[in-house]
Specification:
The complex is a heterodimer. By secondary structure, chain A is of the alpha/beta class. In chain A, 45% of the residues lie in helices and 25% in strands. In chain B, a hairpin with an 8-residue loop joins strand 1 and strand 2. The chains are: A alpha/beta, B alpha/beta.
Chain lengths: 269, 250
């Protein structure tokens, strides 16, 4: 059973006539985590935003995108708005620009939850504080009264995950959630994402250029280059026996970095 | 060569008349030798970028001294041509109105106001080839470059005045992993050619271990530990151990 089936997705820029994604077809299985890897400019973020239908208005898309049997491309904008957040949830790279900078975090969260569930303020606060505690955020009540610029990138990332926990979406799209973070918060965010999947059993699409993180979280991997899918398969087979030259290149460069480090850590004492 | 002694720095917090001060650096002392690559590893918000700005002389410490070959870096004549920097944000660190050629020549021209020598334009070709770009890049503008290319131009600009020390402030963090490794290899080569010293500020321990001779583990404005890279696995402090344990390797 597939939760997402994308067929012949084509994305192009109407201003320049440039085709960003040529013809990609893939599916995400119910309850699994699929990672999209590739260098910057390979079209991995555009693919995900195409599923959310959040690309800029001059970027057009065609093809079918079945989400739980429904074609997202055919939905009207109000129907799509109801899908976003509640069924399809996105975790963005930059926490600073993902939240409204002019109001405190609590306002943003209240707005989102009221829109989708119509709960009152007290219920919302209770639910979100519970969720924030479960992603290891200390003093959640104070955080709700702070502005995004007062919080660190890792904390904002975890607030987004907490919000996803309350919304209980069917599919989570995480667009480079760990790239902008330092080592310790990266580790914690990845742990939280793994737990989020275990707790809710939701499907996930995970975009990253760091194969180390991908290896920790993903079941399936899709490698993209210049808007085309060059290789697809289970995580283990793609990362240990890459077939395409580009995948081999990605794996070898990553290995060079960590082999040196591993040699240091195991080497002469 | 570079000597940092007991520096402290604090910033005003809150409004214009607020007396609250946030201390960013507390009694930081270390040295960097000629030809050495020194890594500074820390979490975001630990004050490592502030330390970088102080070494570059862009800001003044509240107390303590930073000296290069015994001379204080607050004097711009000491810094001129001797200290360069490469920053994280490659898109904003090249003037968008300048071509690659003009951007690389800028520091050389600034230096030549002091001493007159010519032959810049051949030097640009040489610098571009040293960072692995061909001469056709001379007439390009920053927005036409990819992240890795732009960062290479920044490196070419940094080495153009043949400095003694280059400060890299998260210079490779926003690049793809495959490009990171190319840039790191390039930096290693350049270090041999120019006998440079590097101060390499990063949160990525693996990258630091790849290039650095010694690393400083930095936390909340203080030096936790200074350790040679070869003995990285024998770190003593709890924080450094935790840092290594939480690393996601491939």
């Amino acid at each position: 059973m597939n939760i997402v089936e994308v067929e012949h997705l084509k994305v192009w820029d109407t201003n320049t006539g440039k085709v960003i994604i040529h013809n990609s077809s893939f599916e995400v299985k119910q309850g699994s985590c699929m990672a999209i890897v590739g260098e910057s400019g390979s079209g991995k973020s555009v693919t995900c935003r195409a599923i959310m239908r959040l690309n800029k208005p001059w970027i057009r898309q065609s093809g079918t995108m079945l989400f739980q049997g429904e074609d997202l491309n055919q939905l009207s904008e109000p129907e799509m708005r109801r899908k976003r957040g509640k069924h399809l949830c996105m975790i963005l790279q930059n926490g600073m620009s993902a939240f409204d900078p002019s109001c405190v975090i609590g306002v943003h969260i209240r707005e989102t939850l009221q829109q989708h569930f119509g709960w009152n303020t007290r219920v919302i606060e209770q639910k979100i504080i519970h969720a924030m505690e479960s992603v290891m955020l200390r003093h959640p009540r104070e955080i709700l009264n702070q502005y995004p610029h007062q919080l660190s990138g890792g904390m904002l990332q975890r607030i987004m995950i907490a919000l996803a926990l309350v919304l209980e979406p069917d599919l989570i799209i995480a667009d480079e959630p760990t790239t902008a973070l330092d080592t310790i918060s990266q580790y914690e965010v990845v742990e939280q994402l793994i737990q989020l999947r275990e707790r809710m059993g939701c499907s996930m699409m995970f975009i990253s250029h760091d194969l180390g993180v991908v290896q920790k979280i993903a079941d399936d991997v899709m490698v993209m280059k210049d808007g085309e899918i060059v290789e697809r398969g289970s995580m283990h087979s793609v990362l240990t026996e890459p077939k395409h030259a580009y995948t081999q290149y990605l794996v070898s460069t990553r290995l060079e970095l960590s082999n040196h480090f591993k040699a240091l850590m195991q080497g002469e004492s | 060569m570079l000597k940092v002694e007991g520096i402290e720095k604090s910033y005003n917090q809150g409004g214009l008349f607020s007396k609250n001060k946030q201390q960013v650096l507390k009694q930081v002392t270390f040295e960097c030798q000629q030809g050495e690559c020194l890594g500074i590893i820390g979490e975001s918000g630990s004050g490592k970028s502030t330390l970088g700005r102080l070494i570059l002389g862009i800001e003044r410490p509240d107390c303590g001294t930073i000296s290069l070959d015994g001379k204080d870096v607050q004097d711009r004549r000491v810094r001129m041509g001797n200290i360069s920097a490469v920053f994280q944000n490659y898109t904003s660190s090249i003037n968008p109105f300048l071509t690659v050629e003009a951007a690389i020549m800028e520091p050389m021209q600034a230096q030549q106001k002091l001493r007159k020598d010519q032959g810049n334009s051949e030097k640009v070709d040489l610098l571009l080839s040293q960072v692995g770009l061909d001469p056709s890049y001379r007439s390009k503008y920053p927005h036409e470059l990819s992240g890795g290319e732009a960062q290479r131009v920044c490196i070419a600009r940094a080495i153009s005045t043949a400095p003694k020390l280059i400060v890299f402030d998260e210079a490779i963090s926003s690049l793809d992993v495959s490009v990171q490794i190319q840039v790191l290899q390039l930096l290693k080569e350049l270090k041999e050619i120019y006998k440079l010293s590097y101060v390499f500020i990063t949160h990525d321990i693996q990258a630091a271990a790849y290039i650095c001779d010694r690393v400083i583990i930095f936390r909340e404005g203080q030096v936790v530990e200074i350790v040679p890279t070869k003995q990285l696995k024998d770190v003593q402090s709890d924080y450094a151990k935790r840092l290594l344990k939480h690393l996601i390797t491939f």
